[in-house]
Structure formats: structure tokens, C-alpha cells
Amino acid sequence: MSFTFKHAVWAVVALVGVAMLPLLASRAGAETQAESAASFTAAQKQEIGEVVRAYLLENPGVIFEAADKHREKMEASAAKESEAGIGENLEWMTRSDAPSVGSKTPDVTVVEFFDYNCGYCTRALPDIQNIIKTDANVRFVFFEIPILGPTSKTAALWSLAAARQNKYFEFHVAVMNHKGPKDEGELEKIAKTVGLDVDRVKKDLASGEIEEALNKNIEISRKIGVQGTPAFVVGTTFIPGYIGEEGLKQAIAEQRKKK
């Protein structure tokens, strides 16, 4: 859940309200603060509201301070969870038979989480192609995350089936560059143009194994904290969003420095 200005206001209200509990508890004669909070009268609730309002009017900057601190806390927590998710799944993500392009013995591996209907993923493709042409020591692994509708999932399944015929990247590029719909009929045409055995693709799809592989991709993406596409894991660093060719190059260079 994203953090908004409204959340910051309520955080301040809650903090001030908690600070008022001892006062209200003594006035209400309650045995505990929790009991006092549960038995506030209308007058007491109005008093809390007036105190909170007065405090915020006199100290408006506290809202922004609370927002900044909360955002920092949430970002740190998300980064920690991403780091743990990457550590647990890095071996699987970078396995030798994962759909990929680039060096067979890379010093840096980049994992891209993408959707075939994602415009920014389409923009990222030439960035990846350019880096592969100029950097002989990097490898890009592709993780299908179909989040933009039924045809995203259909394209992802066909793409994983193409990997079984060692035609993954050719099919991937063709689907990414395809301007029309990505339904099964169009994907079959694309498959034929890149030399895939369509009957074998359909047989593999019917087995259910490819859908299991796709579900595993989705599960791993959630553990890492992927909330949209594209997203990247460069070495062991999680980077959400499109960062362009230079951004990818910089992230790769930083990983090499770490080594």
C-alpha cells in the first residue's frame, strides 16, 4: 500500500491521541488507558479533536516530518524484504537453463521482470540489446510477470514454450516488437516466423508444466517485492521501474565494483 499525505495526517492524529490518553484516563477515572479509550464520552472525543487540530495548526511541519519518516521506514523495510527474497531465490533465477541472452560465463547477471503488454518493457528491449552487443560479460535473464491482462499470460506461456525449443530470445523479441494483439492466433503466426514447431508448443502448453513454471515466476516476484513492470535485479540489487540503457549500465558497473 502506498503512503499518502492523508496517511501522514492520521499518523500524527494517532500519536497526539495516544499522548492524550493519560490525561483522559485520569479525568474519566478509568483503571487503564485502554479502558479509557474504549469509554470516551462525546465531550472527551471533541476535546481530543480540538487538541489535535490546535497542535497541527501550530506545528504544520510535523505532518511532513511524519510523512518523510514513515516513507523512510517503509522503504527500508521493503529493501530488507527484497534483499531476503533475492537471497533465497537468486540461485533459481540465475540457473543456467533460465530464459536468457548474453554471456555463458557472466560476471554480472541482470534479471528483468516484464510483461509483454508493458510499454516500458518494450522500451527496455533495445537497451538490453545494445548492452549485450557492447558488453561480453553480462547476461540478461527474463522473468515473465503477466499483470496486464489475459493476453499477457498467453504470451508468457508461449514464450516459455519457445524456450524449450531454444528459440526463447528470438520469440521474445518478435512478440515485444509486434504491434497488433497478442492473442493465441497472432502468437502462432509469430512462432512460425521464428521457426518454432507450433504443434510441439501446443503439446507443451497442454502438459501444465509451463504454467507451473510461470506461477513460480510470479511467486518469486512477490517475494522480491515486484509491484510493476519492468523491474530488475542487477547482481543482488533490486531496481523497480524503467531506468534506461545508461541506468542499467551504471547498475552493472556498480555490481562489478562490489566484486
Descriptive report:
This protein has helices at 5-28, 33-38, 42-58, 61-93, 119-134, 150-163, 168-177, 184-193, 198-207, 209-224, 244-258; strands at residues 100-102, 108-114, 138-144, 231-234, 237-240. It is built from eleven helices and five strands; from the N terminus they run ααααββαβαααααββα. A hairpin with a 2-residue loop joins strand 4 (231-234) and strand 5 (237-240). It is α+β, with helices and mostly antiparallel strands. Strands 1-3-2-4-5 form a five-stranded mixed β-sheet, sandwiched between helices. The protein folds into two domains: 5-75, no CATH class; 94-258, Glutaredoxin. Helix 1 crosses helix 3 (42-58), helix 5 (119-134) packs across helix 11 (244-258) and helix 6 crosses helix 9. The model is unreliable at 16-21 and 23-31 (pLDDT under 50). The longest helix is centred in the N-terminal third of the chain and has 33 residues, at 61-93.
Number of helices: 11
Using the alpha-carbon principal axes, give the shape.
elongated
Q: Looking across the biggest beta sheet, what order are the strands in?
A: 1-3-2-4-5
- Low-pLDDT regions: 16-21, 23-31
Largest sheet: 5 strands, mixed
Beginning-to-end CA distance, first to last residue: 35 Å
What is the average of the pLDDT values?
A: 84
The rounded Rg comes to 26 Å
Which CATH top level class of the largest domain fits?
Answer: Alpha Beta
* CATH fold-level topology of the largest domain: Glutaredoxin
- SS-based class: alpha+beta
Number of separate structural domains: 2
- Count of individual beta strands: 5
Order of helices and strands: HHHHEEHEHHHHHEEH
Percent of sequence in beta strands? 5-15%
Helix content: 55-70%
